[in-house]
Amino acid sequence: MRQPVQQLIQLYQNNLFTAAFNICQNQMDAEDAVQETFVQYYTSRKEFENEQHIRAWLLRVVINKAKNINRTFWKKNKCSLEDYMETLSFPDSQSRDLFEEVMKLPDKYRIVIHLFYYEDYLVREIAEILKLTESNVKVRLSRGRALLKDSLKEEWENDEW
Fold first, then answer.
1. Rounded to whole angstroms, what are the CA distances from 41 to 13, 21, 85, 116?
2. How far apart are CA 21 and CA 31, in angstroms?
3. Neighbours of 154 (CB within 10 A)
4. In sequence order, which ranges of 49-133 are alpha helices (DSSP H)?
5. Higher per-residue confidence, 155 vs 56
6. Would you say the pTM of this structure is higher than 0.85?
7. Cα–Cα distance, 77 to 39 (Å, whole number)
8. Residue 161, pLDDT above cutoff 50
9. Handedness of CA 82, 83, 86, 88 (dihedral sign)
10. Is residue 113 within 8 Å of residue 148, measured between CB atoms?
């Protein structure tokens, strides 16, 4: 017995997500586990006895996928920003605050800001490293600076009162 994947998604997606979320405790990882489970069902040629057998198989697979996600190198070795900040030394509290704000920027701005200011790369070199145009790097630097200016201005205004 085989059922169309679309029908199984409608029937079991929420149950599978809940099972995966209980293991991963992270929405995106749980969604990945569910998606990989349906992909595995779609690509497998396994025949099932009945609908209960399909449901049990899907639950077993999503649980295994979620456990595998938790066993990955990245999950085991991730460190919170607060823990990471404790390992760094800063000359003063302003430098620390600035670095924290840089780390909160979206990736595309944070990376160019970090390479430009902390690693002392030139715009041309950053463009080569990231495979971007120089003008794109300049735009990202400008937007990143604007975001930093706004967030630091808010922080400064809050400290004044």
1. 13, 20, 43, 47
2. 8
3. 11
4. 51-71, 73-76, 81-87, 93-104, 107-113, 123-130
5. 56
6. no
7. 28
8. no
9. negative
10. yes
CA distances from 43 to 5, 20, 71 (A): 10, 20, 24
Name residue, tokens 């929420």. 14
Cα–Cα dist 104/112, whole Å: 13
Q: What is the DSSP letter of 117?
A: I
Q: Could you count the other beta carbons within 10 Å of the beta carbon of residue 137?
A: 24
Contact 103, 81 (CB under 8 A): yes
Residue 15 in 3-state DSSP? helix
Q: Structure tokens of 58? A: 């899907």
Question: For the purposes of burial, counting CB atoms within 10 Å of the CB of 37, is it exposed (0-12), middle (13-18) or buried (19 or more)?
Answer: buried
